[in-house]
Amino acid sequence: MIGAGFGGSQLRRHLEMGPQVSPAVSSSADPDKLLASTTNVPSSNESDFFYELLNVVRQNFVEQVDDEDKLAVGAVKGMINSLSDPDAQFLSEKQLPSFERALKGEYEGIGVELKLSYDATQLEKFRESQAKLAEWNEKGRKEINGRPEELPSMDAGGLIPDVIVAAVIAGSPAEKAGLKAGDTIDGVDGKWSISRGEVLELNRAFDRMRLGATERAAYLKLRETYLKRTDNAVSAMRLKEKLTAGTNGTVKLFWKSPGVPGTRSANISKALTKVAPRDGERFTFVSGASEALQAALNGGQTNFDLRNSGFGDFAVMREALRIALPKGEFGTLVKAGEATGKPYPGGNANPDPKLTLVVDSSTTGAARLFAAILKSSGKAQLKGDLGSDPVLDFEFRRVQGGAGYVLPIAEFKEAKS
Question: 353 in a domain, yes or no?
């Protein structure tokens, strides 16, 4: 059984992980110069890490390294993946233009935003294992007889992510097809997204067969189905590209909805869906949002719908906060490794009238942080629930070679009353 599950896990890892920095490289190059362990995101011209990495490659390989940009992109992709953080995104050369258009309110593809959902327990065990292995590797260079501590046991397939619809853009082909936030993408155009649920189902079927509760033929049939899907698997990155990039063509999409039995499907045509920052009560943090917010407040509007607002532009959102927040300091933004963090500064708005922000699980990214800070300030009340996941501040960076990345740089914590 371990072999069957491990095969799916290895496939997913192969599909998802980009070029990796070897231990020899990562020990001599300081990853903080690139990613700053989410405590300090550098500007794109701070590329000491790339050139240090390039020198290592030149010293160890005979062939000339002609394309330094591609090497840099590969290094970034490997480092982003090595964080094991579902909130960190690497944006490929194909994905970056679509991402930047979305910040302006122009959504390509079928009009969805996607996120990866991991089993939190297994992800934490994986991080613990990585930390112990890194410590052992460091000791191994000094103590030849060093051995790793016992690593936490992990469930086969526990690190296979589900691809979840984070938001459905208003007026998009996806909305017209019936997709909703929280749906799980099962496949596209005959290629399948292998889920951890399938691996766990296969695990349980094997256990039942071993205990005599399931016929061997039934288990083998399930295993055959799983292997066929594995042979036609699509990576999460490729899935994102197919569903969020381009404005021409049609995709055959398969998805599952919570509480609805079976798999749904539809042929969905790609299009360019344009979203204004303000459409009645609906509000989205794209270009022009701060001006739209000021106009709305001047007009006496107090209700704002932040559902399905997409990831949004965090720089634009911060401008909007300066307009909406009263004077003071509200909550704290805590960076990784910090004990306390810094208070979030207020603006110059009057404490009254109070705002009402409509939120739910589809309120993500910039809108989620906006809602949490305004609630903390007392300026707004929330109609709906943001959920229990951490409220994160993000930063977006481009890198040489036409790629980019998005990293969580801090967690917002509401002040204790």
Answer: yes
Q: Which of 83, 105, 139 delimits the end of a domain?
A: 83
How many residues are present in the chain? 417
CB atoms within 10 A of CB 365: 23
Last residue of a domain, one of 83, 103, 137: 83
In a domain, 316, yes or no: yes
pLDDT digits (tens, 9 = 90+) for 244-277: 999 999 999 999 999 999 999 999 999 999 999 9
Q: Find how far residue 130's CA is from the centre of its chain.
A: 20
Structure tokens, 71: 């090497």
pLDDT in tens, 79-131: 777 666 778 888 888 889 999 999 999 999 999 999 988 877 777 777 777 77
Structural domain harbouring 326: 276-413
Task: Report whether 317 contacts 367 (CB < 8 A).
Answer: yes
Residue 401 lies in a domain: yes
Mean pLDDT over 69-75 rounds to 66
Domain for residue 47, yes or no? yes
Closest CA to 8 of 197, 180, 288, 176: 197
> Is residue 111 helix, strand or coil?
coil
HSE-CB at 131 with a 13 A cutoff on CA atoms is 8
Domain tally for the chain? 2
- For residue 219, give Cα distances in angstroms to 118, 232, 332: 26, 20, 52
Cα 71 to Cα 24, 46, 165, 290: the distances in Å are 16, 15, 32, 38
Nearest to 85 by CA among 367, 272, 336: 336
CATH of the domain at 409: 3.90.226.10
Q: Is the CA virtual torsion 302, 305, 306, 310 positive or negative?
A: negative
